[in-house]
Amino acid sequence: MMAKLFRAVIMGPPGSGKGTISERIAQSFGLKHLSSGDFLRENIAANTEAGVLAKTYIERGLMVPDHVMTRLLLPRLEEMTRHSWLMDGFPCTLAQAKALNSTCDLDLVISLNIPYETLKDRLSDRWIHPASGRVYNMGFNPPHVQGRDDLSGEPLIQHDNDQPEALVARLRHYKDVAKPVIDLYKSKGILHMFSGTETDRIWPYINSLLSTKIPSRPETDTQHIPLP
Ligand SMILES: Nc1nc2c(ncn2[C@@H]2O[C@H](COP(=O)(O)OP(=O)(O)OP(=O)(O)O)[C@@H](O)[C@H]2O)c(=O)[nH]1
Ligand SMILES: Nc1ccn([C@@H]2O[C@H](COP(=O)(O)O)[C@@H](O)[C@H]2O)c(=O)n1
Question: Per the record, which residues fall in region LID (predicted)?
């Protein structure tokens, strides 16, 4: 018999560890990690209509408008009828949350609450492999060879909008738009907030919460299934 499918969202400001924790959840519980940032980058690389539009915002360090995000992501989620998933970075506005709500019922929302100083330190030290989206931090998870991706050996880059000047505006914007989303999920009784400065200390709490919600790893979700 097929296990019940599980749908979750992870929210948090830039640098709060959504991607890092999502990877751990995906590995431990067999949920498929869906990253809105990766979807955007794939669409930009493929020069889709939405990708071309999204690029003009991302290049300026701005949030992509709701109608572009929903047009891009909802059809992908609708296709995921057979898989349990964890969505990272979407929804991040109330309009996106309402649109998601009309597509599926979420089981759980994780919200990460990390102090500003910690975010600033992490992001100024974040290095990315643009082709794969693999993320490093020079202190927390450094690459084997400095400045090079572990798997491909290709050069790592830093994003301008990870630097402190751009970060202040990004965090202020996140606070404003995320509050009504957090309130919505709180009112539905599915919000779980985790605060702290270290992913390794937050992770055991998330792990034990999910262990109570996803008792066994669904057989069909243990393999890596590429998106259509
Ligand atoms: N020092 C330190 N770095 C961490 C910790 N957890 C994650 N990181 C690093 O912090 C950076 C941000 O983590 P991500 O997982 O990319 O955060 P995110 O919330 O997905 O960020 P966005 O993609 O900008 O929304 C990365 O360089 C991680 O390697 C931690 O506990 N300590
Ligand atoms: N709901 C979202 C999610 C992301 N963006 C834009 O994409 C950029 C990269 O996202 P990461 O999660 O990989 O950091 C981000 O800086 C935003 O410009 C968005 O607009 N809306």
Answer: 125-162
